[in-house]
Amino acid sequence: MATDGIDVGIAVASKFIAVGAIVPQAQAKVGAVASQCYANPRLGSLILKLLESGLNTNDALSKALNEDSDKEERQVGVVSIRGDATAYTGSKCSEYAGHIVGSGYAVQGNILTGPGVLERMARAFETKRGELVDKLLDALSAGDAAGGDKRGRQSAAILVLRPSGGYLGLTDTYVDLRVDDHPDPVAELRRLFSIWELTLLNREDPNDVILKSSVASTVQRILKGLGFYNGDVHGNWDEATEEAFKAWAGLENFENKIRNDDKIWGSVYRYLINEARRRGLLIND
Questions:
Q1: In a domain? residue 285
Q2: pLDDT tens-digit readout, 127-171
Q3: What is the full DSSP assignment across 23-41?
Q4: Strand, helix or coil for residue 117
Q5: Distance between CA atoms of 39 and 113, rounded to whole angstroms?
Q6: 264/139 same-domain check
Q7: The whole model's pTM is what?
Q8: Which residues lie across from 233 on neighbouring strands?
Q9: How is the beta sheet containing 74-80 ordered, strand by strand?
Q10: Is residue 56 domain-shared with residue 190, that is, in the same domain?
Q11: Last residue of a domain, one of 141, 175, 200
Q12: Distances 226 to 17, 187, 220, 250, 272 between C-alpha atoms, Å
């Protein structure tokens, strides 16, 4: 779990069904909590309330654990939006169990193949450039490559919150993906994220744009073949072409990527081209 001062998030993998339903809890502008080993999700709710009241992560975790009679069986990590982090590994957690706390993050695990899992995760998180979601995914992949859960693989999840960073700016859910049962859950989680990113995240390279006027004929031909455009293929991006393009984009769940100017995102245009090829439409692109 980690924060960059804007986003808060958690990435997790385990030999456990639907680990994303149990371990991660977070609140935008407040922090994130991961409760595992013999997880107690109630700790997450309590700790988040304590963080919101102004306590730091150490005090919030200590206060919550004092109310848990089985705390020696727990493993809990906490990070606040302010960047402070802490973690706790109970004495009865199954070996190998441990944690690493760094600036703005905490890495923890139990029933691991060894301490190298945590060390690789921490190193990956610290060295990866990009947004918090990229750092969390790299850390999770590094831990998986280092051996991860010594019982094997089953599920993985990632949750990242950003104020108004979700769908159309109407939620705080920037990324929320789960792989509940899969032979290679971390790889599958990354595959799902690539779809989520393409469809929902507005973080394209600002230079990766294409002038509508330069591809009007191609887009008209494709949209005509797909049944969205009924006009002539004349090469002018007119109102009918714009409406047809928006209708296609909405059906493909790209409403988050529609631009109200003279350009198309390169990622969306490439998707349209690939969709035309997949459908067997003859185009000159």
A1: no
A2: 999 999 999 999 999 999 999 999 999 999 999 999 999 998 999
A3: SEEEETTTEEEEEEES--H
A4: helix
A5: 20
A6: no
A7: 0.91
A8: none
A9: 24-27, 31-37, 74-80, 85-89
A10: yes
A11: 200
A12: 40, 32, 10, 14, 10
Domain containing 266: what range? 209-278
Q: What is the mean pLDDT of the chain?
A: 96
- pLDDT at position 52 is 97
Q: State the total domains in the chain.
A: 2
Interval 191-246: pLDDT, tens? 999 999 999 998 999 999 999 999 999 999 999 999 999 999 999 999 999 999 99
Distance CA 266, CA 87 (A): 42
The answer on pLDDT for 258 being more than 80 is: yes
Task: Check if the beta carbon of residue 219 is closer than 8 Å to that of residue 241.
Answer: yes
The predicted structure's pLDDT at residue 282: 60
Q: Per-residue confidence at 272, pLDDT binned at 50, 70, 90? A: very high
**Angle at which helices 212-226 and 266-278 pack, to 10 degrees?**
30
Q: Which helix (H) or strand (E) holds 199?
A: helix 185-200
Q: How far apart are CA 125 and CA 66, in angstroms?
A: 31
Q: Where are the alpha helices (DSSP H) in 35-131?
A: 41-52, 57-65, 116-127
Domain stop point among 167, 200, 233: 200
